[in-house]
Amino acid sequence: MHPELQEAIDFHQAIVAEAGKALVGYETEKALANIVLLSEIPTTYDKDQQRQVNAGNLLLRGVPGIGKTFFGVIIAAISDARFARIQGRADLQPTAVVGFQMINPATGAFITAFGPLAQAEVILLDEINRIPLKSQSAFLEGLQDRKITVGKTTYDLPTFSFAIATMNPIELGQGTFPLSEAATDRFAIMVNIGYLPPAEEQKLVNFDFKQVRLNSLMSKDRIVQLRGVITREVFLHEKLGKYIRRLVGASRPYSAETDWLHHSPSEMVEQHVDLGASPRATICWGRLVKVWTLLVRKRAEVYPEDVQDLAKYVLGHRVWLGPHATSHGITAEQVIEDIVARTPIP
Description:
Layout: H1 3-19, H2 27-37, E1 58-62, H3 68-79, E2 83-87, H4 94-97, E3 99-103, E4 110-114, H5 116-119, E5 122-126, H6 133-145, E6 147-150, E7 153-156, E8 162-167, H7 181-185, E9 189-193, H8 198-202, H9 220-233, H10 238-250, H11 267-272, E10 273-275, H12 279-295, H13 304-309, H14 311-315, E11 320-321, H15 324-327, H16 332-342
Parallel strand pairs: 1-8, 1-9, 2-5, 5-8
Antiparallel strand pairs: 3-4, 6-7, 10-11
Helix pairs in contact: 1-2, 1-9, 2-12, 10-12
């Protein structure tokens, strides 16, 4: 194996061990966060060709009090990155996310005050479904374009950037603003986080948070470099690339409205899905699977089962069920399982 790939594996194992100091359990979820962190996913044209743009943004969905916020804290600590947390609330304005300009009364000159999105390298937007749509858009637009505009001036976001958003699935009533299809698509994967098993939760009774000390494990620049190495050195066969494309296509029902004139091999998709995955899912899947294969399977070549392992994380927030699906007891996870089962493996 390429020595830098082994370095990435060692880094991943060190992160999981370090994260265990602050966050009990959730081993799979920690691994998935690392996979997104080390993914090199292009978002926009970089005319300077100097930045390895990473848009592997992570969406965490789970009930309150299970430690979603700690994911951002841990990643910032192990990379010695600047961390900011934005608490979602109904009155949060775009200027609180991006920044604003004001006039200095003494000099008459404009003063620019940057928001956390411009300054932080690891940013956590807690309860994203609690902030109004215009503020959601400001956050997601910056992540996509890797730039923000304050006043009349445009600024680049930091080269190293990693964003996590959390949402609470049980609060969908008054005071919440559900993410749209386009907004959720901006996240590379969505991870559903449930309660800990009883044995793991028992450890929290006497867990001493005062003793937690997280160490910096790797520089931000080195993490950026390793992203490029994984993209280049982990082998994804052309046929598996076509397999990914077919899986994404199989999530879409026949629709003249979207000009998708292909029938899915899954009858569940044709009957219960209103909107399937976008081409962005294909982009993300092809890059995420390389990192998954390396960090979890410890291989430098992708197998079909590696592609299948990520299906529910890549497609889970991109498959939108029709209103009649609930009455039939159909879930997105069942639809994804059917897609995988009915799409031929190369």
